[in-house]
Amino acid sequence: MFARSALSSAKVAVLGAAGGIGQPLSLLCKLSPYIDTLSCYDVVGTPGVAADLSHCPTKSHTTGSLPDAGAGSWPEGSEGGLKAALEGADVVVIPAGVPRKPGMTRDDLFNTNASIVKTLVEGCAEHCPDAVLAIISNPVNSTVPIAAEVLKAKGVYNPKKVCGVTTLDVCRANTFLAAHMGKDPSDVDVTVIGGHAGITILPLLSQTGATMTDEEREALTVRIQFGGDEVVQAKAGAGSATLSMAYAGYLFTENVLKAKAGEKDIVMPAYVESGITEAEFFASPCRFGPDGVEEVLGYGELSDYEQGWFDKMLPDLKAQIQKGKDFAAN
Ligand code: NAD
Ligand code: LMR
């Protein structure tokens, strides 16, 4: 069991809180028993988002800040600015940045989102160097290495506290496999490894015990790898997954906070600095504790089919990591 006092002392900052993910994610945080201060930060709209959320009758105090501390904030007259949003934060969730349109890859977002993430993580280095960073902004395979390099340059990098959020890949894998098996998705738990873009997403369906033909295995694997594209196409230019991502982002945040509060056996996937493959950053199940990632866990045996994808994925993933590191270095 965890201490009640620890339950009620967490501050979570959402950067990009007025966006498609940021708003529903902030709502879920506002409903959380694990959060007692929720700070909503964005370049637009956060005083309104925070005022709106503050009418929900839950215990957490909600604030809304814009980059310019003098440009408005919630509560009215409160300090505002990135510093106020971040100071004292235990977890900073970052969905700030542009989403894809049909025909784009996540890497096509690099030029815009790399700078956004770099600037925000510089703020974290200064104002909340001990917070766990949960990075949602794409391309995650590169933005997480950027965050790590920024923190290293500021002398505050802790690899246990810099995570790319890959929870949505697991949500999709569980949903799609459950449909195939005729099961409730909550009874299915697929390990998904690698990164968060196309073929770097590798669901280990062989470990689930599900029976399927070769064609079914291929179709399920590819659907999980390209699940993001399914939503991008259906939204037809209006963005990418927001509601399912808000759910997945909250699940990740809640688990980080449960572990922080002393709850044991919190294991969930995260894209983190890792020594379990040749890639410097890799998504795999991780055990979380009070200080972030306690242990990067292995992922068991791969089938020959999965090994084929793994071998294809690794050069792509390493290149995307290097791209992030090069950006941060220059
Ligand atoms: P959106 O455009 O609806 O919202 C993004 C928000 O970020 C906007 O409100 C914008 O004002 C804000 N923003 C931009 N620059 C900022 C800055 N410098 N500081 C603070 N806020 C800033 O986009 P969205 O649909 O919410 O998606 C956000 C990001 O999340 C995209 O990069 C998308 O690709 C990514 N994403 C990742 C996953 C994942 O599984 N990791 C899933 C879905 C989407
Ligand atoms: C997703 O997986 O839904 C996100 O990474 C958004 C996208 O661009 O597909």
What tags apply to this protein structure?
single chain; 330 residues; alpha/beta; Rossmann fold; L-2-Hydroxyisocaproate Dehydrogenase, Chain A, domain 2; 7-stranded mixed beta sheet; 3-stranded antiparallel beta sheet; 17% strand; globular; disordered N terminus; binds nicotinamide-adenine-dinucleotide; binds (2S)-2-hydroxybutanedioic acid
Write the layout of secondary structure elements.
Elements: H1 4-7, E1 11-15, H2 22-30, E2 37-41, H3 46-53, E3 61-65, E4 73-74, H4 81-86, E5 91-94, H5 110-127, E6 132-135, H6 140-153, E7 162-164, H7 167-181, E8 192-194, E9 201-203, H8 214-225, H9 227-235, H10 243-260, E10 266-273, E11 281-289, E12 292-296, H11 304-329
Parallel strand pairs: 1-2, 1-5, 2-3, 5-6, 6-7
Antiparallel strand pairs: 3-4, 8-9, 10-11, 11-12
Helix pairs in contact: 2-10, 5-6, 6-11, 7-8
The chain binds nicotinamide-adenine-dinucleotide (NAD) and (2S)-2-hydroxybutanedioic acid.
Structure description:
With 330 residues, this protein is an alpha/beta fold. The protein folds into 2 domains: 4-165, 3-Layer(aba) Sandwich (Rossmann fold), CATH 3.40.50; 167-245 and 262-329, L-2-Hydroxyisocaproate Dehydrogenase, Chain A, domain 2 (Alpha-Beta Complex). Helix content is 42%, strand content 17%. It is built from 11 helices and 12 strands. The protein has helices at 4-7, 22-30, 46-53, 81-86, 110-127, 140-153, 167-181, 214-225, 227-235, 243-260, 304-329, and strands spanning 11-15, 37-41, 61-65, 73-74, 91-94, 132-135, 162-164, 192-194, 201-203, 266-273, 281-289, 292-296. Helix 2 (22-30) packs across helix 10 and helix 5 packs parallel to helix 6 (140-153). It is globular and about 60 Å long. The relative contact order is 0.14. (2S)-2-hydroxybutanedioic acid is lined by residues 99-100, 106, 138, 168, 228, 231-232, 240-241.
